[in-house]
Each structure stands twice: as C-alpha cells, then as structure tokens.
C-alpha cells in the first residue's frame, strides 16, 4: 500500500507535464524545446541531490555506466527520449486530456511487457508471465479511460486524434520498458536518484541534437517556455520520476505489484482535468467522462485491494513454511 501511495503522489506531479506542455503549445512554443529543455534543467537538480546524499554516489554511478555504456545509452533512449519526445509532440496536436488519457495505456503496456524479463527461481532463469488478474483489473481502468475519451474525441479532427494518440501509445510502451530494463541492469546497486541522473546524462546527446535543430528551425524559446519547462523539469522530471522509480524499485521482483504501482498513474487524468479547468479554463467534463473518472478510481482501488490480498497470502505461506 505504501508503494501505491507513492505512485499516486508521483502521478500528481506528473500531471504538471500534460498541463504545461499544452499551455506552451497554445502560446506558440515548439515541442522540440519543451522536450529538450526539461532534461537540460533536470541535470543540475539531480547532481545536487546525488551530491547531498553522499555515499560515493557519483563514483558508484560512474562505475555502473562504464561497465555497460551501450545498455545505459540504449535503454535511456527508450525510457526517456522515446517516452518524452512523443508526449510533447502529441501536445502540439491534441489537448491535455487526450494526451494524458491515452498515456494511461501504459498500465496495460507494462503488463504486456512482462515476458521480456527473466527472473531466477531455484537457480534457474524463468521468463516472467503476464499476470492475468492484474491485466483484468487494468482493463477496468482502461474502460474508464475510453469513457473519458469518447465525448471528447467527437470534438477534434481525425488528424488531431491520430497525431495526439499514436505517439503517446509509443511512449506508453517505451517508458515502462526503459524503466524495467534499467532496474534489471542496475540490480539495486544504484538508488533511484542515481539512476535518473545516469539515464538523463546518457540521453543528453539526443536532447542536444533536438535543441540544435530547434534553434535553426524555430529560433530560441520564449521566456515563458523557459519558465514553464523549468517547472516541468522540477515537478515531473525530478520529483515525479524519482518518486515513481522509488515505488517501482521496491516491488521490482513482483510483476503483479509492479502493475499495481504503474496503475496509479491513471489518477493523472483526474489531476489533469482539474488543472486544465483551473489554469487553462477548460470546460467541465461531460457526464460520460465523469463516469469514466469514477471507473478509473474504482479500478485503482481494486488494484490496491488485490495487492493487499496477495501480500497477506504470501505472508501466511511464509509463516506456515517456517
């Protein structure tokens, strides 16, 4: 339950991404700057956090990255670049509710990725299976998401619908894949703060290339975009990402629990709807969308309850076996 609460808190800070990215697009800011600036701003904050925590954090991280440089660059590209660049691109073509709502597909995507991972049981490598119960519960949340999308989808063009959803579906698979592969690669040898810093540094060359391209095509970012990108970097890039990584690190050996933590991200939709109403003067969602929000919350509560039951059964078996 503690991990689920951390996940919900992370989703609150993640919601800032969708609201401010849409705000920047409405003001004429380029998605190229919105994506690259976030990671540029993240670096000094993460360096400061790792330095304050001490414990030879930089040396440990450096050794890990030197040991598997190709893996760090590759999975960081998937987990950060293929995650965030498509999200900011989608914000240029669809409203925040469409992007954040479609992003919740990551709940199901994370479960479907389970067979790509191996675990050691009794000295043997065993391929993880898709947790069907967790998948069924996530399906409930997905139904709620579709209920939110239906009334809104009728108000946007086909082009906006496709360009506002397909990139997000790509991101929905990339983020959990990159996150889980990096957890497996690190094996708990670096903490979430070090891992986020390492992945940010490993992905910097791509962000630099995007920034250079943006400079020659759209010019420099406005002061407003710089400020809002800084807010996104602190809220979503540092606080939310680290909180989410802490929660997933704690349950990384259990696909069911991991799915429950990832499912907490569905609550972002609530925060985004409220945020857009307050900050961007978005209208109140229609009755069907409000019902969808209720379904999402119910699905999240079922996920939490299922996790509690599984933990109790495992504890009982452990006590019975001595």
TrEMBL record:
Keywords tagged on the record: Membrane, Transmembrane, Transmembrane helix
TM helices/strands, residue ranges: 31-52, 72-91, 97-118, 130-150, 156-175, 196-220, 226-247, 259-282, 288-308
Pfam families (UniProt xref): EmrE
InterPro entries for the chain: EmrE
Name this polypeptide is given: Multidrug resistance efflux transporter family protein
Annotated source species: Solibacillus faecavium
